[in-house]
Amino acid sequence: MGQTLNSSAIRGFRKLCFITLAAVYLLILVGGIVRTTGSGMGCPDWPKCFGHWIPPATAAQLPENYKEVYASIREKKNLKFASYLKVLGLGSTADKIINSQSILAETDFNVTKAWTEYGNRLIGVVVGFFIVGLFLQSIKFRMPRPPIFFYSLATLMAVLFQGWFGSIVVSTNLTTWTVTVHVFLALLIVGLLVYLIYLSEPVRTDLHPRQPIRWILVACIIALLVQVFLGTQVRESLDVIATQLAQRSQWIGALGITFIIHRSFSLIVLLLHVVLVLKFRKTLGLNTLPVALIILILGTLLTGLGMAYFAVPEVIQPVHLVLATGAFGVQLLLFFRLNPDRKVAFVN
């Protein structure tokens, strides 16, 4: 395209992209910790926690009927959300949210869970500031490099929507499908940030692919997304089982066909990535990204095995999620470099 950008400005923008992406992965890790520790409803309202900007230290700081108060607040929010769903043609889903009594069930105040969830929200605020900073920096590129500006704007919109939808996850008492949507929205934000990193990097990092590698990589991306979706279904089943069985050692055996499919499909994911790395080695030489990708995939597989054979330890679950989303980010960067679509010159 022959566009020219100031080197210091674009490199500063790219550095901020990396910092923001790291913060997003930290948020995904902390979100996984919130999920595995059952702290998702540690704060029943949003953005405050039990009506406070700083979570209360004891239940004595709350009104005696605090459960009824926050259930009523969430009910009003759910009715509004249900009206949106009906407009979108999702009437049955809306009715379930309105009529389900379990959605309005409140848990007892727990200071540890409250701070765990609140810490998750604070990191989310930091990520939001980083995204705003990216957008403000991108304004200077709106003329010489419009895609940087528009994808920064898209990232900001995605984060704002994710923040709003996070409040819906809380108001619907962690309804399983809303948690799944929340995860995939996080993947969308990762994808947008990775693309911004690609747009702001030197041209010399682009690879010149042969068609089979490109299609193998596409198959790897699709397979990983399917595996992530299957993982969310397993997670949903675990949430139900955890309320029925106190012993974690019994959870995996009670999962049934959903877990079997998820476990078996991991071998397909691994095989596809092995083929990808071998193809790279044969045609383009071993690039850093394919090596990093196979390491992340192996880490995802090993942590999955760790959960299956060691009674789903809480410490492994968030790491498993971060490794999978990390692999997705590397996949996308590799894909973009295999599909160069811009020529940017850097000047001092």
Summarize the structure.
With 348 residues, the protein is mainly α. Helices cover 72% and strands 2% of the residues. The chain has a two-stranded parallel sheet.
Structure description:
The chain is an all-alpha fold and 348 residues long. It folds into two domains: 1-201, no CATH class; 205-348, no CATH class. Helix content is 72%, strand content 2%. The chain has helices at 7-36, 66-87, 91-99, 111-138, 146-171, 176-199, 211-244, 251-255, 257-283, 288-309, 316-338, and strands spanning 3-6, 344-347. It has a two-stranded parallel ribbon. α6 crosses α11 (316-338), α9 (257-283) runs antiparallel to α10 and α10 (288-309) packs antiparallel against α11 (316-338). It is globular and about 65 Å long.
Helix content: over 70%
Please state the oligomeric state of the protein chains shown: single chain
Tally of alpha and pi helices: 11
Number of strands: 2
Total domains = 2
Note the run of SSEs as H and E: EHHHHHHHHHHHE
Strand content: under 5%
Unreliable spans are: 342-348
Separation of the first and last Cα atoms:
19 Å
Q: Could you describe the largest sheet, including whether it forms a barrel? A: 2 strands, parallel
Radius of gyration: 22 Å
Question: Quick check: average pLDDT?
Answer: 87
